[in-house]
Amino acid sequence: MSVPKKKLLDTAWNTTTFLLTKQPEDFVDGHRVKIVIVGSGYTGVAIGIAILFKRLASELVFIDVNEELAKAEAEDISHGAAFLGNPKIIGTKDYSLARDATVCVITIGDRSTNEQDPSTLLEQNLNIFKDVIPKVCKYAPNSILLIVTAPVDILSYAAMKLSGFPPHRVVGLGTFLDSCRFQYFIAQKLGISASSVQASVICENGPTSVPIWSAVTVMGIKLKDINKDIGTKADPESWGELHAKVIDCDNDLISRKGYRCWGMGICAAEVVDAIVRNTCICVTVSTYLKGCRHGLEKDVYMSLPCIVGRNGIETLLRHPYTPEEQELTETSCRTIFETQKSILNSLE
């Protein structure tokens, strides 16, 4: 009885070709959402993690001049990719990998110490932006830029000028986190859930930010209707101290743990979510203003309640501020513009 000869294996055979009837390179590349994060420091990684946990990106790219750091962070996160929706996570210094990105988040040059002089920080980060923003926009000309780097209002304005993008496609994280902190501190004082409190901080992401006490509510009940002096110097309950805590939060966290990133990561991911899924949420982000009742007859970026969706800033909300809030808003706008004047010539 003759023994049948074994069929010789195809010379191109390997485990993949044996296991799969169709090869990976032949897979149809359907709708994919690519998010790019420029900067793989604490803040960039926190934003990346928050985006991945919300399963917003099928591809996440960390771009950093320190390519080994970017690759290491990408690989570290990739080891848990099975529980993040199996995204493709890349670390690189090659800006061409930003091609076709939906959102590009700029975190590079983020503040890491309390000792940095504000004017030095602005000059240093502006120089970084002059190099980074044109590279990102070259490969992702249809993306929306989300600016996280401090000082966020001035650098959002710079990014708009350097990119040539329409203003609605350049969004600064602004006072979004400040508003969340304000909401959290109010909830703590009341002893209730933060999600039950509605509260906003607008204008500069900095010491002249403006808490809108007239709009602080719990389930639609205005706290100002209960305490007419809330947030003022005459307030017997000293609610105004909560805004001071908001302003000092970054310095406090940096002095206690060396950096801060998680709150910022969560807030940035929420803005990315609004863009990717077109949720049209209302949040206080930094947007372009030119001659409006919120401030001077000058073009600046500052935070106001904005509707954020697929096109970036879809529209602004008109809020009836009190005369005191209006005055503080104009002061904050003037502060932003005075700081911004120092960089105008370098952006022409």
UniProtKB/TrEMBL annotation:
SUPFAM superfamilies the record matches: LDH C-terminal domain-like (SSF56327), NAD(P)-binding Rossmann-fold domains (SSF51735)
Binding positions for NAD(+) per the UniProt entry: 39-44, 64, 125
Residue ranges annotated for the Lactate/malate dehydrogenase N-terminal domain, each copy included: 33-172
Presence of keyword tRNA processing: no
Domain (Lactate/malate dehydrogenase C-terminal): residue spans on this chain: 175-335
UniProt-listed GO biological process terms: lactate metabolic process
UniProt KW keywords: Membrane, NAD, Oxidoreductase, Transmembrane, Transmembrane helix
Annotated TM spans: 35-53
GO molecular function, one term: L-lactate dehydrogenase (NAD+) activity
Family: Belongs to the LDH/MDH superfamily.
PANTHER family, alphabetized: L-2-HYDROXYCARBOXYLATE DEHYDROGENASE (NAD(P)(+)), L-LACTATE DEHYDROGENASE
Protein name: L-lactate dehydrogenase A 6A
Source organism of this protein record: Apis cerana cerana
